[in-house]
């Protein structure tokens, strides 16, 4: 089984629909819709972006994504 980082990298590539190495809010919303729209609310998506976007550029790079979800910190308690 893949470790947490490998799993996070796989998810990142799946969500990065344009392949530019960055996740935008729209790409995250599209992924949420593809998951049936039941994965996260709009406010949860915004909170996810805010918590992951360490450099403040409005997008989430691979390392930012792995840093947040690669350790299970994104999961609800």
TrEMBL record:
Q: Does the keyword Cell inner membrane apply?
A: no
Report any Pfam family annotated for this entry.
Answer: EF-hand_7
Which part of the chain is the EF-hand domain? 3-38, 40-75
Among PROSITE patterns, the record links this protein to: EF_HAND_1 (PS00018), EF_HAND_2 (PS50222)
Q: Mind listing the UniProt keywords for this protein, alphabetically?
A: Calcium, Repeat
The record ties this protein, via CDD domains, to: EFh (cd00051)
Coiled-coil regions listed in the entry = none
Q: Which GO terms describe its molecular function?
A: calcium ion binding
Q: Cite the InterPro entries for this sequence.
A: Centrin_CML-like, EF-hand-dom_pair, EF_Hand_1_Ca_BS, EF_hand_dom
> So which domain of life are we looking at?
Bacteria
This protein is called EF-hand domain-containing protein
Could you tell me which species this protein originates from?
A: Nonomuraea cypriaca
